[in-house]
Structure of Diaminopimelate epimerase:
Amino acid sequence: MALSITKTHGSQNDILVIDGAPTDHFAQPDIARAVGLMCDRRRGFGSDGVYFVADHGDGTAQAWFYNPDGSAALLCGNGMRGAGRLLLDRHQAESVVLHTGPYAFTVRAADTTSHGVRQVAVDLPAVDFTPAEPIVAQAEGSFVDQLLPAFHPSRRVTALAVPNSHLVSVVDTYDEADLVATGTRVATTPDVFPIGANVSFVLPLAPAEVFIRTFERGAGLTLSCGSGVAASRAVLSRLGQVAPEQPVVIRNPGGIARSWLQPEGDVWRPVLEGNATKVYSAQVDPQVLLGDGPVEYVGEAYLDEVNAFAALNSENRKVLQEAGISLTDV
């Protein structure tokens, strides 16, 4: 059975969405190899990860996410935008629910921008500042706004789960080389960070407007990280910099989004709103993905959607340039 693949992106965090469960197409031991080739930007399709989505046919689905190195992850917030948008279109619905692990994610249709960019809003699971599996070894209770030399010699950091693990620093200047070095330290210091973590630097630009960039576990520096946005948004409120319900404009190198928190009892549930753009769709024989590539395919490109987003993001990039933020595209 051919693999039906749609390349999507949320803030240029490009994710391949595949119909069906991973084991519908590959034996369990082969999944990581196939994902690695699909994500390879020279030999495969090129992406920041893969979502497999088994549609239940009733507006709900089961989803599995894999990083480019083939490792499984509980969540890719930007990828959830693309996967959810495809289900919204298929069922002509205003909202759908995707299940992954023990979590359920509601994806709702949001306003289309003046540029013609389709947007969705994703209701994410509650953030957890005291996760059962510690992000920082031997940390007792929450780890909020603390110095930790193994992380960085001078930047304070907050640890939280969204539900995947994150380390967030609010900074007064942005240094990309410093972010890469910090993310690399976290990835290579398992005695301090036993489960690894995504690392985000957050630079306030104006009231209720910030720049965020994330060094992702298993992927490295990316143009945007949806769960990194949600984690960073929660940290801003935990540090008292903005009220939970206040929508905050989020600028990434890959695009612009908004995020806010929904208080429910003593927890916060983040909402991530932004583009969910289709790039192209294609079909490929699964056996091809167990070879060495390059992968050859014929597909349909969605140029109107690609061009509409390009116009929107050119405005975002201009704002970042005027703010003096120096970036390396990936």
Summary: The mean pLDDT is 95. The helical segments are 22-25, 31-39, 77-91, 176-187, 226-238, 303-322. The chain has two domains: 3-108+276-319, 146-275. The chain has six helices and 19 strands.
